[in-house]
Amino acid sequence: MSAEKSGLVDVYGVWYHPWWHSSQFYFFIGTVCFLLALTIIFCVKRYFWGKQKISFKQVALQDLYRLQSQTYISDQAIHEAYFKVTMILKIYLSKRFDISLLDKTDTEIAQQLHGVVPESLEAMLKEFFDRSFQIKFAYDSVSEQMLKDDIEFAQKVIHETSAELSVTEKR
Predict the structure, then answer these.
(1) pTM of this prediction?
(2) Who has greater pLDDT, 47 or 125?
(3) Whole domain around residue 89: which residue ranges?
(4) Phi/psi at 9 (5° precision)
């Protein structure tokens, strides 16, 4: 026989076609690759796109609710909670109004929010941040009820500023 038979191999004088050169093998490999690609796409889609995305408003409200549901036994715990409340509010306001507040002190935040938040909230936020600064750093005495009232105020701020957002989005 001639050696020009393409794809055929001579083994001890018997010519045959190897199985990996057959069309069934390529079909099998193509099917496996296709199924593997579908599985990967399905897993990636389910992992990344299947998760519900929650807004920064919802994250802030959840964090404040967790703080509100806790009981505070010592003054130290109340002071730590004030750090958390102001940080939650800083993060929310930073994302909501797209300004950098995380590197600002509590007294500087009121200056940054001037003209950004409604005037009715601006004075209350200034008072809140001034009071929290005194509590956190001057260790002013504060009751658990006052902390809970300030957490409710923070929730009110989030609701009012997000309501303003939904009104401006409709326009």
Answers:
(1) 0.64
(2) 125
(3) 56-170
(4) -120, 140
Q: Any residues with CB less than 8 A from the CB of 153 and at least 6 apart, and which?
A: 124, 128
If phi over 0 gives left and psi between -120 and 50 gives alpha, with beta otherwise, what is residue 2?
Answer: beta
Based on the domain organization, do 151 and 120 belong to the same domain?
Answer: yes
What are the percentages of helix, strand and coil residues in the chain, rounded to 5?
70, 5, 25
- If asked whether residues 22 and 102 sit together in one domain, one would say no
Task: Please list, in sequence order, all residues whose beta carbon lies within 8 angstroms of the beta carbon of residue 30, skipping any fewer than 6 positions away.
Answer: none
What is the tens place of the pLDDT at every residue in 101-157?
888 887 788 788 888 888 888 888 888 888 888 877 777 777 788 888 888 988 888
Q: Indicate if 154 and 84 belong to the same structural domain.
A: yes
Contact 75, 110 (CB under 8 A): no
Same domain assignment for residues 20 and 88:
no
Rounded to whole angstroms, how far apart are CA atoms 97 and 107?
18
